[in-house]
Amino acid sequence: MNLLNNGKIVSFLCSRIVVNRSFFCKNGLNFRILQKSVIRCYILDNTNICSYNSGMKERAYLCIDLKSFYASVECVERGLDPMTTNLVVADPERSDKTICLAVSPSMKALGVRNRCRVFEIPKNIDYIMASPRMQKYIDYSAEIYGVYLRYLSKDDIHVYSIDEAFMDVTDYLRVHGCDVKTLALKIMDDVRKAVGVRAACGIGTNMYLSKIALDITAKRAKDFIGYLDEKVYREMLWNHRPLTDFWRIGRGISERLAKVGISTMRDIAHTDEEFLYGIFGIDAELLIDHAWGREPVTMEDIKLYKPQSRCLASGQVLMRDYTRDEGRIIVKEMMDLICLDLVSKNLLAESVTISVGYAKPNRGRHAKGTVLFEESTNSAAVMIPEVVSLYDRSVNPEFMIKRMNITCNNLTEDTGTRQMSFFDATAVPAAYSERRMQEAILKIKGKYGKNAMIKAMDLEETATTRERNRQIGGHKSGE
């Protein structure tokens, strides 16, 4: 970084820097740092004149979402119109407390919220209940991705989830000879023709604005398209409530803001930044940027991103409230499956973190802890006892449990080498024997289904593995 004064040009290329979120030049000049932007500051005698040039033209981003994707697929498979058919995706074999993975648009129009439980659906509504078919949804998603590739390179598409994708179409408008909205309509129409599923689209000058245009404005538009740039965003949505409608602002952040009298994006934008940093730490930077409608991260940044470490996670919401003793079997089951997953991917974990969420009336509270192993491992014989011990130390026995998450941290490749020990001559042979057994189990499950081979603990009344195997790509033929 080179700063010159006395009438010289101040020019520098910077990454995302936080210094009070402002950089103070000599003579009292104040301006915000913009990521990867070439900023030229002209200081003429004692007059402060500042201008910036981002070094690139205004971008055009699409954020396309497939409307009620799972429910729409099930309607299409039955030859029904997803927009007019009352359908929910939920397992009819489970209790009425099971969560609906999706509800069709017509159900939403009747006031049925997405991700509700079956018993919450009004009794006066007639609807079809469809069993989840994850592989079917994955196949549809892959076909839709193929439609996107007719218009853009994969380098300009970021798949955000099975039913949502970001696209940088800036350099494709001239190729297709149309404006950004026309291109969006073409893509959406082709998706509908290819698979029968309707899409909604947000258009923005950065990825954040395209996401907000999708989530908030496109839903109210007749053509299911919303548009935002920074100016329109501030005019339309600065006073929008609730804050939880905005991407990455959950109930927890919203409640913390409400405690200090902040209830809109306008409030955030005009709040002293040091005050926000005092509450949220470095996360305040993202909150402030989004309040102003800014998002410096580009598609290129996403494609070039390399995580410093890798992790593997598994989680589940329990069908009923569990005691701590009942939850212990869930921890063992989940950890056993994670160990098999590590072996199948040829990975080792340095540590494991568990997070346990409590049920009402203690919902919102959780127990969390991490265990670090002497050396990275994927051995169930090593990991399960340590994680169960961590669970017993961390979870309050007086609270009921509703959800559970386990994460293996700092994953590395398994090179097949093991540290020899002078104190346990059986350690290496035992590890080798366990590895061969795990590989054999994986082969059997891969050929005959996930439930083809289970452990005795999976037959416990409170166990969930067999049921989850049937739901998440499992094969019933193995039972």
Largest sheet: 5 strands, mixed
Helix amount: 25-40%
CA-to-CA gap between the ends? 65 Å
Shape estimate? globular
Overall strand count: 18
Description:
There is one protein chain. With 479 residues, the protein is α+β, with helices and mostly antiparallel strands. 35% of the residues lie in helices and 22% in strands. The protein is built from 16 helices and 18 strands. The strands form 5 sheets. Strands 10-11-6-12-13 form a 5-stranded mixed sheet. Strands 14, 15, 16, 17 and 18 form a 5-stranded antiparallel sheet that branches. A hairpin with a 2-residue loop joins strand 10 and strand 11. The longest helix has 22 residues. The protein is globular and about 65 Å long. 28% of the residues are buried.
Task: Label this structure with key terms.
globular, disordered C terminus, five-stranded antiparallel β-sheet, 35% helix, 479 residues, alpha+beta, five-stranded mixed β-sheet
Furnish the topology, listing elements before pairings:
Blueprint (H helix, E strand, L loop, with lengths): L8 E5 L9 E2 L5 E2 L6 E7 L2 E7 L7 E6 L2 H9 L9 E3 L12 E2 L1 H5 L18 E3 L3 H15 L8 E5 L2 E5 L4 H4 L3 H16 L3 E6 L2 H11 L7 E4 L1 H8 L13 H9 L5 H5 L3 H8 L2 H9 L7 H6 L7 E11 L1 H21 L2 E12 L7 E12 L2 H15 L6 E9 L2 E2 L13 H22 L16 H7 L8
Helix pairs in contact: 3-5, 10-11, 13-14
In short:
This protein has helices at 69-77, 105-109, 134-148, 173-176, 180-195, 207-217, 230-237, 251-259, 265-269, 273-280, 283-291, 299-304, 324-344, 380-394, 427-448, 465-471, and strands spanning 9-13, 23-24, 30-31, 38-44, 47-53, 61-66, 87-89, 102-103, 128-130, 157-161, 164-168, 199-204, 225-228, 312-322, 347-358, 366-377, 401-409, 412-413. The chain has 479 residues and is an alpha+beta fold. A hairpin with a 2-residue loop joins strand 10 and strand 11 (164-168).
